[in-house]
Amino acid sequence: MPVVHSATAPRFTIGELARRTGLPVKTIRFYSDEGLLPPTDRTHAGYRLYDAQAMARLELVKTLRELGLGLPEVERALAGQASVADLAAVHVDALDEQIRRLRLRRSVLRAVAKRGSELEEVKLMNKLASMSDEERRRLIDEFWAEMVEGLDVHQEFYDRMRSAKPELPEDPSAEQLEAWIEFAELVQDPDFRALIRRMSEQHSAARERGESMAPADQPDYTTLFTRANEALAAGLAPDSPEGRALADELFNASAGERDASDVLYRREVLERFAQGGDPRAERYWQLLAIINGWPPIPTQAPAVRWLIEAMRATID
């Protein structure tokens, strides 16, 4: 139907509005029925007609809808009950939350695709990804409380352990979300919990034997790992003189009042060191670093294996 001209201004039919705006006739009719686009006039046959102002109003409705505002919000804006700026601010907040949830879903789906997860695991992963900051902190507090329950541990040492909490930023990356899912699964894994509990029990037993187990009295592992890596790079064997010397340093640093040459003592230290060097214990801190945006923690697994063999060489 063509444009209808009145004595003062042109009038447009719904079909003409559709051609000019690219909106379906059905959509324009719906907006008109809902009161968002009142007709300017009607023909003698009752067909709705719209003027240039109505067309501009329709373009605004189209824009607001494309930005995701609901019909009630559009109606409020058109009625002057709320400014477009205010509605936009509210909608930005809603979109931010929607984006956050979509990122969570994407991370879960990416992890599902990577692992080939079954339905029950998918449910668990989605639950973990959706946890709040408070729930994440509580999970770690409960984990460490169970690890030391009923044991005589050095409080400063374990306070350090439990103080490192996973703190996802407001806009976490996919890598951080995936790291959190893996971290949460790790601290709930029965085998990992058993490993950390055994380490805590050995820590407690060492204190009962008179070892302080204070952080300040422990070996400088950073320096030891650096030197072990240098020895590895140089092709030195763990039972070389250099390897045995490093092992002796490690034993002497932990001895306190005990005889560092005692075989029983050395076996106890070796067992503690081997458990502490478990790849899962290292992974715990690597995942925390990713989640919290800390500098990456490189693996020390080769250095740990080399030192373990060096320590064994001094005992066998």
UniProtKB/TrEMBL annotation:
UniProt entry tagged with the keyword DNA-binding: yes
One GO MF term: DNA-binding transcription factor activity
Entries under SUPFAM superfamilies matching the protein: Putative DNA-binding domain
Lineage top rank: taxon: Bacteria
Alphabetically ordered keywords of this record: DNA-binding
Domain HTH merR-type: 11-80
InterPro entries attached to this UniProt entry: DNA-bd_dom_put_sf, MerR-type_HTH_dom, MerR_fam
SMART domains noted in UniProt: HTH_MERR
Transferase as UniProt keyword: no
Protein name as annotated: MerR family transcriptional regulator
Lineage: Bacteria, Bacillati, Actinomycetota, Actinomycetes, Pseudonocardiales
